UniProtKB/TrEMBL annotation:
Family assignment from sequence similarity: Belongs to the fatty acyl-CoA reductase family.
Compartments, as annotated in UniProt: Membrane
Pfam family, one: Sterile
Function: Catalyzes the reduction of fatty acyl-CoA to fatty alcohols.
Residue ranges of every copy of the Thioester reductase (TE) domain listed in the record: 36-305
GO terms under biological process: long-chain fatty-acyl-CoA metabolic process
SUPFAM superfamilies from the UniProt entry: NAD(P)-binding Rossmann-fold domains (SSF51735)
Gene Ontology CC terms: membrane; peroxisome
Catalytic activity field: a long-chain fatty acyl-CoA + 2 NADPH + 2 H(+) = a long-chain primary fatty alcohol + 2 NADP(+) + CoA
Main location: membrane
Name by which UniProt lists this protein: Fatty acyl-CoA reductase
Amino acid sequence: MHTFSNHPIGLLPVEQNYDPAKPSIAEFFSGRDIFVTGGTGFMGKVLIEKLLRSCSELNHIYVLIREKKQKSIKERMLEMQQLPLFDKLREEQPELLDKMVPVQGDVSLLGLGLSQHDIEMMRNVSVIFHVAASVRFDDPLKTAILLNTRGTRELVQFAEQLPSLRVLMHVSSTYSNPDRYVIEEEVYPAYADWRDTIRIAETFDEQTLDVLAPKYMGFLPNTYVFTKSLAEQIVNEHKDRLPMILFRPSIVISSMKDPIPGWMDNFNGPVGLLVGCGIGICRTMYCDPNNIADFTPVDVCIKAMIVAAWKRGTEPVPSTANQNLPIYNCCISNLRNSTMSQIVEMGRTLSDEIPLDKCIWAPGGGITQIRIHNLIRVLLYHILPAILIDGIFRLMGQKPFLAKLQRKIYTANVALEYFILNNWDFKNGNFIKLASEIKPEDNKDFYYRDFIEFDVTLYFRNCILGARRYLLKEKDENIPRALTHLKRMKLLDKICKTIIVAVFLYIILIQFDMLGMILYLISYKPSYGLEVDCK
């Protein structure tokens, strides 16, 4: 077993451990029907696009979708196919999009909400990627159990009906056992019995469960990690009956380069921090500045998922009583890490190069480990300016939004406190070794360890550009205008700070006559002489 440095590598051994007798990844997926849950989510979209583009001979990808906001499942799929993520596929091989088949259902429902017709249609599915999950930390316990835990049970029961199944990958999280600070690639003892937990969620109402949640979850910080850890127990219990894989990504953020640099569809993780700082609304954060931000680019994660599925699907099928459960901690902080303070500093530097059109104040602020200091800064830099700016919007006849946004930011930071004040040591030997088993002809499309040598500053530069393009819908040609706007904001920031300091000094020195007292003390001379009696 190799040991790895925390430094950017160059130092990684470039070993090769592939089996030439195995089919290539594209050959393995050729002609197969694939079932994906969570296909409309961030990782699911990138997974589907990558499978279609790099394994174009596959038969169908069935995507579990529910109707949402009065949109049918077909409308939602067509909407997804128009995203910039699919531009390359639409331009080069648009016919491959026809291989996406929407299937109406919902992971939180019994039987996944599948109709008998759809179950028969998916009879030949041989690979399943279970990506669906609620990633909200503040979900009610009942909601999280039904989606994350019971949903996994329902998927497993569906998979048991498939005669041609070769792989079932369950996507979990490296943070599913957060009370342990060294996380090996293994399943840990359960925090509760998953059968009892599902029964409780099905029996009691949401309010009752929320009252019981702190006691029932023990020391776990939120419903997400609790229910994901229980889902791992379900996977582990079925490893002898189904060809399971447990895949644990860390914080998954913008793509590195495949299919496009900087693709992102949410504000989670460091990208949200960079955008908040760039807009000027996030000026303080309560966390350890030396905390390691364990993030993984989404294309690195997706490539590793596909490689892991290929490896599992091409292995000889052992006797049902002796199947191992392959577990992969998809994380890179022990190979290439960035601290929270480094990310903030990078954000400051990049905000001068790539400002945001929607910047409402000059970027600034920082990190503090002192809670009371953070609360004071939240009051002075977040809440009071938000109230003032919203008041101006009201006078101008526009809808106020900043106070509501700051409330969301504060709530999100409170939910993240447990994770940004602690560090974990994620062991990833299986994840690293997996890359060495990729065949040479697959390296171009599926090799994922190149992130270790990728320029981190360039990566975060692409993250901010991606946030501009895909989240904030800002055009690159507006950057010069945004630079001019940023200069005005910086000037306004300096003027405001100067005025505040001047008013403060005026009140202290003039109104309270501190200046007169200081001058009096400086010029004061005693009116009596000192007498020294020497005898």
